[in-house]
Amino acid sequence: MNTNQIIENLKAKYPGENEYLQAVQEVLESVEDVYNQHPEFEKARIVERMVEPDRIFTFRVTWIDDKGQVQTNTGYRIQFNSAIGPYKGGIRFHRAVNPSMLKFLGFEQTFKNALTTLPMGGAKGGSDFDPVGKSDDEIMRFCQAFMLELWQCIGPDQDIPAGDVGCGGREIGYMYGMYKKLAREYNTGVLTGKGATWGGSILRPEATGFGALYFTQNLLHKAGKDIKGCTVAVSGFGNVAWGACLKATQLGAKVVAVSGPDGVCVIPDGITKEMIDYMPVMRTSNRNKVEDMYVKFPDKCSFVPGKKAWSVKCDIALPCAFQNELSAEDAKELKSNGTWCCCEVSNMGCQSDAIKYFQSNGVLFAPGKAVNAGGVATSGLEMTQNASHISWSGKEVDEKLHFIMDSIHDSCVKYGTQPDGTVDYVKGANIAGFMKVATAMLEQGII
Q1: 40-61, pLDDT tens digit by residue?
Q2: Which stretches within 74-233 are classed as H helix?
Q3: What are the catalytic residues?
Q4: From start to end of 288-375, where are the E strands?
């Protein structure tokens, strides 16, 4: 395999799809040596097939706003790879959604799902619909219109969407309601992230953040450290950041910064339970302003407009918001402020140069496909409960989530341990996920 040639071919074929090309290049650079040890992979052209999605659905979404005006958005579902199981991946509602973003997310999802130990392929979907400032009724009408176009492309053994940025439990509920009406069957397994009263799994809303902290804890223990007493900076205030703040606090860390697109809330004494409980309220308000936390708790935090969480002195940085949110300049600022660990909780949360800076300057780093896999893992557990028509307790789900995150960490260590004994978690995660998917593709023939 010649990584540079493959990337150049993709650039010529998909000019301007920067996120997708970035994700592919990161994986191929990590796995090139291992891949070239397997001539059977080259003969079957595994990489050339793996980097292309199986299929892409693109559709118009037409809905009516509160003023009675007709609005039109574009919807997508990218079914990337089903070698190890049915397509599985979230739905993102954000004004920046485009094919490049969703192809990168679907590609990443393929390897992330492989790491979970569960039989799930990779997919992603969404729309350029912007939920900021929309009323609850507008959100409902859009979600119903979106599902009207999508419903025949998904199913519990075909493609199982979940939530993502801009799409939480409320949106999943509206979409499932429309799916049920159209399909005329009560099949809760077709979507995950559902409400607890109609097929949702206990701990699913918290799972991405919880799993990320379990992985971070494993990483720290491997390095001879502990999270207890550490200061943590977090970006975002959606479900992922909320779960991360909650679990970090439970494990004895102190969350000293939470940021949003408008700035950062600095919390010198650490985030409180009341502040954590307020984060889901901020998310569903559709205002997208972290300043709301300062307005609600002016005695516990300060607000600095235009700044990121990475401007606040901390031990551990947890990007939990959006892809490429942490730049090389941010990485340098963190390092100068004493940060010694960064774990991506968002998908591809760090830019390539930031990752290289961390790795070459002694900052412990782990990629999103390993760190945040607890969310989709618990979605897989939700699918199992739905298929069996049972509901596990929170203790049972948490134990299974712990086991999965421990297994992911073990896989990263297995494939990422360097001659000097350190662990390259990027390389480890990429090789572990790649080998599982590549082997399955090889054994299933040229299709």
Answers
A1: 999 999 999 999 999 999 999 9
A2: 99-115, 136-150, 169-183, 204-222
A3: 124
A4: 302-305, 316-318, 341-343, 364-366
